[in-house]
Amino acid sequence: MTMLRRAFGVVAQAFLALALLSAPAFAEQPVLAQIKAHPALWMVHGEKGTAYLFGSIHLLPPNIVWHTPQIDAAIEKADVFVFEAPTDDSAKASIQDFIQKNGLLPQGQSLPSLLDADMRTDYRKALDLTGVAPEILVNKRPWLAGLVLSVASMKRENYSPDSGVDQRVMAIARADKKPLQFFETLEQQAEMMLPTDPKLELEEFGLTLKDVLKAKNDIGQLVDAWSRGDAAELYRSTHADLVKSPGAEKVLFIDRNTKWVAQLQSMLRQPKTYFVTVGAGHLAGPHGVPALLRAKGYRVDGP
């Protein structure tokens, strides 16, 4: 599982946006025709409260329109908006601190010095392709350098966190001065990204370079499934690589979903309506949030 896939499966939109601070802007972007999406929406009936569950794609092209009448009506009814993690300035500052502690190489060491001849060739080509300046990455650990290159590559294909579902829903909530709640902190999410094996970290960086050079990413397939409201395909798209890594699936999805469900149960005891926006992969499949709530006896309308 490459760093790119881990990033889209785990990291909050603001953390990806932070990587974009190092990614170049591409001046000439094509004008794209609008694409109508019809993402799935779940409705949970609690003891006193109601929760709408909406799956987010953290980066999207600006031409994808996902505001269906059903989604807009749920947003309008919401008293409280719930997200994975905060993305305000203080949260971003804490992530900057996290990167200073965990994203930089030891003094005197450079990223190119860690690479063998083949990886150096791929690295130079990836820099040329994405337009990322080499001085930006020279002191970065492979996991962070891979994230920056991946996001820069996605940006070339018109994917941006500014168009991501999290960002758009949060903007609506803030404009309406609605309360916000969060399941996790950005630090907790970032901790899950940190590789514990330097050898594996470097191997993943090599795979990321290959993906960037091939313009290969799985997000197109994921976005297609999400746009159709196809929960079964959404599950396959987000969990396919995890079949070989059940430990990773447990940490990245199952354990977190279980904790979120416990928090949702507390929310549903309140006479309020919640609009919950989390990564789309957390809502699909047998261990998704809707399935876990159904197993606990809640009525959940939706796929």
Care to describe what's here?
There is one protein chain. The chain has 303 residues and is α/β, with parallel strands linked by helices. The chain has one domain. Helix content is 51%, strand content 11%. The protein has a 6-stranded mixed β-sheet with strand order 6-5-7-3-2-8, with helices on both faces. It has a two-stranded parallel sheet with strand order 1-4. β2 and β3 form a beta hairpin. It is globular.
What's the quick description here?
This protein has 303 residues and is α/β, with parallel strands linked by helices. Helix content is 51%, strand content 11%.
- Percent helix range: 40-55%
Largest sheet: 6 strands, mixed
Domain count: 1
In spatial order, strands of the major sheet run 6-5-7-3-2-8
What topology does this entry show?
Elements: H1 3-10, H2 13-20, E1 35-36, E2 41-45, E3 50-56, E4 64-65, H3 69-77, E5 80-83, H4 89-102, H5 117-130, H6 134-137, H7 142-156, H8 165-175, E6 180-182, H9 186-193, H10 198-213, H11 219-228, H12 231-239, H13 246-267, E7 273-279, H14 289-295, E8 299-301
